[in-house]
Design brief:
alpha/beta, pyruvate-formate lyase- activating enzyme, two-stranded antiparallel sheet
Length: 243
């Protein structure tokens, strides 16, 4: 059975890698690290080493057993392109995503440089969406690395949005997600940063998804932006049934 997700823009999660290390300010209050502490305390075997990066080849085949078409966030508890994830392991993950063609797989990374370094070897089937996280203007360069990939659907997650990112070139980008940080110590998000990105998406005809205002009381703060919800998605979809 798939692991159902509470993340607003996906349906399920698949974690062949768990654990990570911090690479930029967006990592400071990592939700995955916080969740791992609970999962470790619950005695789940994949989290027995806490947030230390670990690869789990025994879960490779899981998406192939899920016959109902789903949107699956890959490595919600890690980063597939972490420097310590072996090249061959990454290629095996891509092989599974290619074979499980009835699912949509969403891969998100902060390590866009490694993504670019491996690009020539990655087999991009149409059901693999590739995204990068951009928390401030200092990390907009990740978008340029993403743009050079052959992923059919390319997306940006501006979450946690920590500052005004300024003007963003969205050429070749199929989707933008924006969200504030949530949980203990959450850093505030200025509404002007959000509306600026929303307006740029509208102007450049890029689907816009506003995930949350965040904060310590995430549910109370909700996800209304100027009186409405924004839940736009890319238009491209893969085959809907298993072979």
């Amino acid at each position: 059975m798939a692991s159902n997700s509470s993340i607003e823009w996906t349906e399920s999660t698949w974690n062949p890698v768990t654990g990570c290390t911090k690479v930029s300010p967006g990592c400071a209050h990592c939700y995955a690290e916080r969740m791992t502490r609970r999962l470790t305390a619950m005695g789940l075997p994949n989290y027995k080493d806490g947030f230390t990066l670990r690869m789990h080849p025994h879960v490779f085949e899981l998406p192939l057993r899920w016959k109902k078409s789903q949107t699956i966030f890959v490595n919600s508890m890690s980063d597939l392109f972490h420097k310590d994830v072996q090249r061959e392991f990454i290629l095996n993950v891509f092989d599974v995503m290619n074979r499980a063609h009835w699912h949509t797989f969403q891969v998100l990374t902060k390590r866009a440089e490694r993504l670019a370094a491996l690009e020539a070897e990655l087999p991009w089937s149409d059901n693999i969406w590739m995204g990068v996280s951009v928390e401030s203007k200092d990390y907009k360069r990740r978008i340029d690395f993403l743009r050079k990939t052959k992923a059919r659907v390319k997306f940006i997650s501006f979450e946690p949005l920590l500052a005004d990112v300024g003007k963003v070139d969205l050429r070749g980008i199929d989707w933008a997600i924006v969200g504030g940080e949530s949980g203990p110590g959450a850093r505030p998000m200025d509404p002007r940063w959000v509306t600026s990105l929303r307006d740029q998406c509208l102007a450049q005809k890029v689907p816009f998804f506003f995930k949350q205002w965040g904060g310590v009381q995430k549910k109370k703060n909700g996800r209304l932006l100027e009186g409405r919800t924004w839940s736009e998605m890319p238009l491209i979809r893969p085959a809907l049934v298993a072979a």
